[in-house]
């Protein structure tokens, strides 16, 4: 057996390329959300590994028969759930190359290209996003790194802030350390804080409101911190978000950083979803104020056409950042590390081993070019805006949060559901039922959130293959299901529109 | 622009398959260890991303010209450094499929196949490794999960042990928690403990010695714990290793678990490298006693023909394990999760997002079959044993640690170097110089360790393409370079052999 026989590698590799190309060609034929029941796979699968080799032909048949029905098709053009994961050719080729080389780039010496291409790509992205020079690897103190996920960025930056503080005030104060976020901050933040040993009660959430677009209020933050200090807590970290998961809300970075700086806190800006949009000049202003932050991250695997998982993180003070993550061992000792002239990325992440992720981002940035990437973002924003327009045309529906990017939060209004015009509870149940009916058709997939006690349907544009016609079809499907549920005909003329339903301040970009 | 145009996907995909097949065909032509100097890539690369798309042909040319020279060729048959990362066709195809689908399998509902195939594959592996049923997902309390790296396994299990204890004794005791390992435990363990908030001084290392094959002594552990308890510490966790990184030493699991159980400690067994070997019945005894452990992990990406990164972890008490890692949010709330009938793997790892890793392991186990996988392991062990035999035939060299698996630790003996027969310091410098000369030829790549103050060269067999001839060539290269350095001819007959150089207890399997 030679598991890397080039002849077989070639033959089987070509087969899988064709298999996947066929998959993309047929993807609209599958129900977007998998319709299998729990345990479906165990019924058709042997309960131990085979003794003898099986041919690729048989395995691919089983992928078609057993795996594809169990997949929710994130690459379907009718996928509008969560935030999309944008598979595409260039990133796929990058994954092929990095898997082909399969180098373990824990430090510069283990594969110099892995480290240097990562530095290069992070510099390219820094310029694309117009991030401050203080975050650049070419600056004295800053630098960028590719992690897997935002959770890793949370863990590593929280750890840096924690250790930096404890070094100054003594380890016995651990229980007093407090970190800040809003009730719209991603739910993984709480878990990340727990991982690094922040007392769960000391993860302090500022409450947001719909009237202020679910933004984290600097005034409320300041008040909360003041009270906490009086209560003996030590504020060390603030997580601000550009593009929250529930409604894509944008926290005011500039003023938040000003508040945090009064208390010498680390500020992390989580732009997991919306960061990608900021490569377009017209969206860049959402990052204004980031120069006051200590770190910034976004997920290229969400909206910058990069395969899972790829989180781009920059820090301003690499010394504080890498100190608690650094390791030394004779096993990987080498003269280049000792020279101090190179970056060893093992000291920038939780794990030692790391994949050659930069290759896929490099392929994406080169294959598409900046102009096409911007057009790609704009196309998605335009489709979301169009969807928002359609919602506004139907008086039974209402937009539930200001739309900034490519996601629309909406619901059937309580007014359309019953006489109890302001009964959010009833509306919540109705909209949940509506969403279930819509998804059960298999023709689209959307998900929901609950903000300020209100159940909202999230329509998140972002799948690579989505076109105008899919957006239109999705809306008609929602309308049709709503009509069935409400038992009234679909309003089909603009005369039914109640302009007041357009939320104040929705941007037209 | 359609970044998932099936026609272009097919055309470019086929090109990259051919590119990589050519790479494997030519891999022996490249210097194994990259010979570039720091900063090499920045000289040839533009300092910002291109505005316009570039054709795949131009990009692949740059991969050949700029990336390949900067890669250390982990897939070269002449790669004997660290522990190998075993690229291969089946796992590569699995990566293609998982990247093609690009699902984000954080919970069952987000893509049922991702969760169910992971459970299935972990059950297959559990049986292959004859792990106790108490680790099985089909048991009441246990379960298996695919993580990226052993560091993640450390962090998650340490967190479980810590939180379980603090729930019982109160959070204010955090500073008293102590965790145990040996001086041969992987250096990432210390960092993982720091991440979860274990006081660095409370990561307690038992010293090992060459005379006991660098094993963690249960008696020494017991004594250390007793003293620590007297000093007010609270022991919560022991990391035992099967196949340490420096010498592939094997800790005595059974007696270590007995000691740990006296103190109600969590025992994690780290078999990152050697776990794969235990699919062969003749090596399975190295895991004897694992039934007393709380968790067990090994890296399929090291020696089980699986692409980076893939760490397989089983735990006996999934409730303690998942409690601190669990998250809930309306954003991902769904009826299947609420039913309690499914596993949501987001609660088994640090991050929320996760790749469909099970696909590649499933491809490997099916494509090769158990019998061929065992043969593959045995072939590597046989090559290492042959290398060990060659070392033993040359009286200038000595084996420095008992060989258990596919790695040989050796050096030029102080006796061969100078009159100062027991001068380890001089021998260390000599062997370091020898290794540098050997690697500088570009024809092979080996790395080193320092154990008990002694510099040893590690010859780790594990690359997928390695054959007998590569092992023989590597040895002749080492001999030749040693001869140049020593200024004496290579002994070429068995009459020079000093049988005493064969280390006591080296196994013949």
Automatic annotation (TrEMBL), chains A, B:
Keyword Lyase: yes
CDD domains: DOPA_deC_like
Residues with PTM N6-(pyridoxal phosphate)lysine: 302
Keywords from the UniProt entry: Decarboxylase, Lyase, Pyridoxal phosphate
Highest classification ranks of the organism: Eukaryota, Viridiplantae, Streptophyta, Embryophyta, Tracheophyta
One Pfam short name: Pyridoxal_deC
The protein's name in its UniProt record: Tyrosine decarboxylase
GO CC, alphabetical: cytoplasm
One BP annotation, GO: amino acid metabolic process
Cofactor: pyridoxal 5'-phosphate
Region feature (Disordered): 486-509
Single annotated GO MF: L-tryptophan decarboxylase activity
